[in-house]
Hints:
The complex is a heterodimer. Chain A is mainly alpha-helical. Chain A has 15 helices and two strands. In chain A, strands 1-2 form a two-stranded antiparallel sheet. In chain A, helix 7 (137-147) crosses helix 9 (176-201). Chain B has two domains: 6-66, no CATH class; 69-276, MetI-like fold, CATH 1.10.3720. The two termini of chain B are 17 Å apart.
Amino acid sequence: MATAPIVPDRHPPATRGWYKRNEIALTPWLFLAPAMLFFAVYVIVPIGQSFWISFHEWDGLGEKTWVGMANYDRLLGIGEQNIDRKFEVSFWNNLRWLILYLLAIPLGLFIALFLNQTVTGIRLYKSLFFFPFVISQVVVGLVFSWFYLPREGLLNAILGLVGAGPINVLGDPDMATYGIIAAGLWPQTAYCMILYLTGLNSVDPEQVEAARLDGAKGWRMLCYVILPQLKPATFIAFVVTIIGALRSFDLISVMTNGGPFGSTRVLSFYMFEESLSEFGFRMGYGAAIAVVLFFIMLFFIAYFLWSMYRDERGAR
Amino acid sequence: MFPTPIAKRSRTAQIGYQAFLPVALIVWLLPLIAVALFSIKPDADFTNGNYWGWPSSFEGFTNYGRVFFESNMPRYLLNSLLITIPTMVGAVALSAMAGFALGIYKFRGNLLLFFIFIAGNFVPFQILMVPVRDLTISLGMYDTIIGLVLFHVAFQTGFCTLFMRNFIRALPYSLVEAARVEGVAEWRIFLYVILPLMKPALAALAVLIFTFIWNDYFWAVVLTQGPGAQPVTAGITEFNSQFRAAYHLMSAGSIVAALPPVVMFFLMQKHFIAGLTLGAVK
Lengths: 316, 282
């Protein structure tokens, strides 16, 4: 940057190096190389390998035996066998997670609207409302499983005050999944809240004032003036909530380990159980479950990428 | 501003709001407050069934002392740090470079590569699990810190590249053009023009990655076992089986395990939130 010749150099070097001549074309690839290498080795190639493994029977150590579609047939109950019961339970639980987890978005919006004020100490309140998100899911799981404890838990202490009988949330196959989802909603709501707080911060005040002059307020103001401006925040909240719901593993592993009677399994947990648990290393079958989960996720990934692609098109 | 600022409401509404805030906060954090209360109670309170009453004596120091001196907790905490910090550095470095390439240069396949990085970031962990575990074993890195770090760096690069690329895209392109006119080499443009402007993004990503990796549980279970290399999220299970049903100690242990990212968050709040809410504002 120091000295730039003002007069063009009349004696340019006869041969600039090959690198110098192609600098602009080569540089991006040199800069990309390490990231691409890591990403290919640890993310892209393993996806392909998982597909490959899912057509085999494999204990993770010995030789792989080619079984074709047998793993999928057993999983989905194609042919004369029944659908894998554990898979069925996991799949429906995944659906419960997906739907109920989305509650984090309206809940987060509600808390954000509640906290979007300027009173003394509000910044601290916002941080304290947010910080469940920072805690690891393992600890959230532990905290909630103690909260639900039938004898020592705070939940039953509170229920006792209003005269409701003690309930064993995590011990009841009909309730356990919902109990875990509630625990997951806690940090997820905090995340959505912070997205909306940031979004609300940048809502155009002139539009709000103009709408106010036109007599819009409360619910109508929210629906017709505020929410459209919060669309980017809603999109991100949607993306992270869907991904979070399908990734649910830590909470289940910590809180119930799939029980009681396997009622809280989801696909990600079932896959782990099949491939790496004390019941044996059935990597091929596990990989087949992972592939199914991958396709469910792919449906959403395609939608997210499509939305981003549209924005990208609009931008330049 | 929406909703209507409370300052424009009646005096009663203002007082009501101010009074309701702490109540709402306590309800929101109730499960956590319960654990904090447990962690300072003496053993005797649990045998006597005094779960929710006032602690019969303050045993905070004893309980936390036992966490640090009578268990593997310090070892797990150290492992977590040894995993988290190199991952943070590695992922930020790789993605700063990749983000520079994708954000500044126009070349065939730019957008495609960018989208592969994003898509990879959304993939379920389970589809990577068997091959990555296999690879780590065959590299002789199973149950080592380096094995975990390498994977985390690779996986986090997806998210970080998305972040960096968008950040660099928003910088004025004329800076690069001006530098080129001056004949500055491309790698120098990265080092001396772009990198200094990326400080906020680097800080935001560093805190985010710290939290994500510190809190990782799945990969810790898949790629490590035992106190040799396991981070605190996985170690807490062993800790809890050591102190089975000793709720005061288990609570203290969980709080210790959860604390570092919380501290990080409160120290670097601005960057943390800037990182998390990237894209939430247009």
